[in-house]
Amino acid sequence: MPQDIRKFQQDKILVSPSILAADFCELGKECEEVVAAGAEMLHLDVMDGKMVPNISFGVPVITSLRKRNQAIFDVHLMIDRPLFYTPAFVKAGADHITFHVESSDDPLKTIECIHSHGCTAGMSLRPGTPAEALFPYLDKLEMVLVMTVEPGFGGQSFMEDQVPKIAAFRREILRRGLQCHIEVDGGVSGKTVEKVVAAGANVLVAGTAVFRHPEGMVAGVQALRDAQDKFDSAL
Ligand code: DX5
Ligand code: ZN
After folding, report:
1. Which is the closest atom of ligand 1 to the Cα of 20?
2. Catalytic option among 48, 95, 105, 185
3. In degrees to the nearest 10, what's the CA dihedral of 97, 144, 39, 44?
4. What is the DSSP letter of 152?
5. Residue 45 annotated among the catalytic residues of the structure
6. Per-10-residue mean pLDDT for the chain, 235 residues long?
7. Which candidate, 119, 113, 122, 102, places its Cα nearest to that of 185?
8. Atom of ligand 1 lying closest to residue 208 CA
9. With 0-12 CB in 10 A as exposed, 13-18 as middle and 19+ as buried, what is 196?
10. Domains with residue ranges and CATH for the chain
């Protein structure tokens, strides 16, 4: 049975390292190491070369990782047909599946499909897409994912102009009394984390800042968790 991210409070920082920044020759080992370093989730960036201009990895890699790793698998589908591929990613071991509002499949049908397989559902949006594009779906989602870089590549610079979008989601979620985590992805590091947490995000994706932290993964995870006291429950 998939693990349920609803067991976590919405004001608790959760760290979800993106394996895109790991050494793929040592993937199993690095994933074990990052979980031992305190990460609650593994962020798995799937790209199809169509919705984004890059190709990463897919079902076989996730299937193999699942055999050795019990962390929450936070699958970020940057693919054009998330509805079509959802059953395959569930079978591979996904716990949570996020897809993009810019993809070609019907959002409501995709959410329904993810839920029908026992997983939690998330939606994401490109930096150029306004928060309001996801508002009609918020009551059906367990997480929204705010991109703070253009999706497609790790190691890009954090887009500060996306911070108000995080706050807009936080306000809307509070206003409607919804249970929905806010995840942020792209250029999140010890330097940028306070801004996203102060704006109301609690699930932090970081590739470079965790897997390539100069002082190691424990320091990378801790630098993100250190922002816990910046979370503003009253936003
Ligand atoms: C970008 C991916 C991100 C990326 C983050 O399209 O969705 O998850 O790997 O990498 P960093 O943390 O290096 O910006
Ligand atoms: Zn991602």
Report:
1. 9
2. 185
3. 40
4. T
5. yes
6. 95 97 98 98 98 98 97 98 98 98 98 98 98 98 98 98 98 97 98 97 98 98 95 71
7. 122
8. 13
9. buried
10. 12-232 (3.20.20.70)
